[in-house]
Design a protein that fits this description.
single chain, alpha/beta, TIM Barrel, ten-stranded mixed β-sheet, 13 helices, about 15% strand, binds iron/sulfur cluster
Length: about 350
């Protein structure tokens, strides 16, 4: 059985075929999934941070307006929200309350965090609202963590303590939340891949996933890191050897498909049809049809401070932006290779390529 029971290395649009059918009929649909950036600032300085260009101003979303808009999102059909984005979501002073409110609106909630400021008190309050939480740790030792996250060496212990507290509380309260650890692979942390297998299995997280670096077009600190075929092979063998010899329950997910796709450097689809299915809310309250195009008017289609979600989702600006991405955007030149919607775009490209005689199933 695949270790990736969350389909992290794939996509899950198959389970939203009603929305896909509406899209096929050219209806303007509400997103299934949203990403929301509660703040623009972070307490870490990761070498690979795709949003390093966005950390200049200290901005936080107004919790009252945000919660009103989240209620509207739930009514209009948004199914899930991940809080992440430009900064560290746990730094928003009302994050716990916002997450609880989101869940009460019938929306699945998740958080991607560096986890460092988490503690028993925060996890006690936050975990019951979450479907999943992902700790971006990217290291197995204090030295590597300090180097890769641009932070003091003592910080690793703090993050590991926070992670262990989250796992303990989940277990003691029998909470259905999934707790994962993400390891973004770059030159500076490759030696930590093997020790991380044992470390995070011993902590009993639900999964440990290895993901490729991905360069954001606006990123300041570009490293141009790529993966050779032998490197991919060697990572896969290490992971497989560990999985075969371990009885740990932690799923180990090497995102090989994403790593290979990133390495190819070629988009496996020619136009972007994914924008109707997701959206991004920046820490300034601006709604974007794609998170890669922050500060780009072609993708910024409204503000939660001046418009309702109904006005934003079904407004002319969003319609125009979606049509632009489908027909005029030169994804090979402008887009982030292997962006978050890459697998969905491959699926939609397949659907658009209708063969003859479809009724002979
Ligand atoms: S923790 Fe996340 S937002 Fe903060 S610097 Fe690292 S990658 Fe960027
Ligand atoms: S293909 Fe381009 S526009 Fe579409 S989701 Fe990816 S980065 Fe955004």
């Amino acid at each position: 059985m695949s270790q990736d029971r969350f389909a992290i290395d794939g996509h899950k649009l198959y389970w939203h075929l009603d929305r896909v059918a509406d899209w096929q009929k050219n209806r303007l649909i509400a997103p299934v999934y949203m990403e929301i950036s509660p703040v623009s600032y972070c307490n870490h300085h990761c070498l690979f941070c795709g949003l390093d260009f966005a950390h200049n101003e200290s901005v936080a979303l107004d919790a009252g307006i945000l919660m009103t808009r989240i209620e509207e999102m739930g009514r209009l059909g948004v199914k899930s929200i991940m809080f992440a984005g430009e900064g560290e979501p746990l730094l928003h002073p009302r994050m716990v309350e916002i997450a609880a409110h989101t869940k009460s609106c019938g929306i699945d909630v998740s958080i991607t965090t560096n986890g460092m400021i988490g503690n028993a008190g925060i996890w006690e309050e936050l975990l019951p609202s979450l479907t999943w939480v992902r700790f971006s740790i990217d290291a197995a030792t204090s030295e590597t963590y300090a180097k890769v996250h641009g932070i003091s060496p003592g910080s690793f212990d703090r993050t590991i303590t926070s992670l262990k507290e989250a796992v303990r509380i989940k277990r003691e309260r029998d909470l259905p939340v999934t707790i994962g650890v993400q390891f973004l692979m770059i030159h500076q942390n490759l030696a930590d891949i093997e020790p991380s297998l044992q470390l995070y299995s011993d902590i009993c997280v639900d999964y440990l996933s290895f993901k490729p670096y991905s360069e954001h077009p606006q990123m300041i600190n570009k490293s141009g890191f790529t993966y050779s075929a032998s490197m991919i092979d060697s990572i896969e063998k290490s992971v497989q050897a560990f999985v075969n010899g371990s009885s740990a329950k932690t799923a180990i997910i090497f995102r090989k498909a994403a790593t290979e796709a990133y390495n190819d450097g070629v988009q496996r689809f020619t136009s972007c049809c994914a924008l109707p299915f997701w959206g991004y809310l920046s820490s300034k309250g601006d709604f974007y049809t794609c998170s890669v195009y922050l500060n780009d008017d072609r993708f910024m289609v409204g503000s939660i401070y001046t418009e309702t979600m109904e006005e934003i989702f079904f407004g002319e600006k969003r319609k125009k932006s979606i049509a632009f991405a489908e027909t005029n955007l030169e994804i090979g030149h402008e887009c982030r290779v292997n962006c978050r919607m890459a697998r969905i775009n491959e699926f939609l490209a397949f659907l658009n390529d209708r063969p003859d005689h479809v009724n002979f199933i």
